[in-house]
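[09:14] KT: can someone run the structure on this one? pasting the chain below
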Amino acid sequence: MSSEANILVIDDEESMRDSCQQTLLRDENRVEVAEDGSKGLSMLERESFDLVILDLKMPGLSGMEVLKKVKEEDPEIVVIVITGYATIESAVEAMKAGAYDFIPKPFTPDSLRMITRRALEKRKLSLENVLLRAELKGRFGMEVIVGRSASMRKVEELVRKVAPTGSTVLISGETGTGKELIARAIHSQSSRRDKPFIVVDCGGLAESLFESELFGHVKGSFTGATETKYGRFEVANDGTVFLDEIGNISMSIQTKLLRMLQEREITRVGSSQVIKVDVRIIAATNKDLLKCVKEQTFREDLFYRLSVVPIVLPPLRERREDIPLLANHFLRKHNTKREKSVTAISDCAMKVLTEYDWPGNVRELENVVERAVVLTRSGVIEPDDLWYYELGSKTPSSSDADGTKSLTDVEREHIIRTLEALNGHIGKASEALGIDRETLRLKLRKYGIG
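[09:31] RB: done, structure tokens below
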């Protein structure tokens, strides 16, 4: 069964959480709950939600604080505020902070379902408008995603050929090369474009939770399973599942995934009921999976099931001619996002960007340009505006002192500065550094940071 939407209810009252969840499940939504603002924000950091239903009055982080943080992280997410302290002032304040609508307690199940349906329809129309704009461009933004180099034109051609076929695709490449963007481009040009595109971070979940996340579980199947939960494959039915960093899954999960690919059916944890699913699988990895097969850490039969059509993304250092195109795109993007008026990247600064090896690839380049847009005091980005990054040592005004530091010292300082600049946000820092969250957490423990 496919879900209409992924909804998060944040409310400190258990009865209200349960009531909202049961009501919204009747519309075949997938509904998660959080008992306070901090847990809700943590869940939002780990998972994407279409709609948040948020109590305004809660102990600890208030609903208004949570609302502002949610909209800051994801301006497109739809938030409905509920409260037992309904006043015109609080309603206006919530709407100004980005809430879609405001519903006072007590409310009936029908009124909740009605306002939720309207909110989800608004989000659907918003997403359709984004897709329409991309379609009008005729290339789904591929000119920005892949660049103009010969190697990436081949990738673009592969995407165009494989997208309509429904074939399983394995995208390989270093962290930050744009594997998820390519997966989204494939989905957007397929017959499933109007169905869900569900991302599963195979390196971001504990082994004990991963099977439940993929396949779902039934109430009482294990300690803490207080309700039946739909897995990602059910949620994505008729759409696409993107398995990011597939090389991280255990042999046990590999076996279950292979069965799903062969039989197109799953079984929830704790259940013997077979559920048919129709999803397209796109997997991605930064590992050499053939090497993993030889080392017997990855099943050979699963490898060949996944790599029906392999797409290899070259690292940015091997397609330097794309760097100016990408850098200028990110300049325009973050000028708008940050409401800045930076007009250009100087030739000298562009030379620095082009000569840098970019271990974090496109993701790191975007982060560098965004930071420069924020920090520059003029209308043109100069080499000095890149001082924060290791590439800053290549600029004419930078000191050579860092050259005497060990790689360990440089890495530790780089992580600390990244975290400071991003206010300690683990998710954003891992993206900027070009590593997954678990790797970053290991490095934090290693260097005693935190």
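[09:33] KT: thanks! Residues 109-137 form the longest helix (29 residues).
[09:34] RB: yep, looked fine to me
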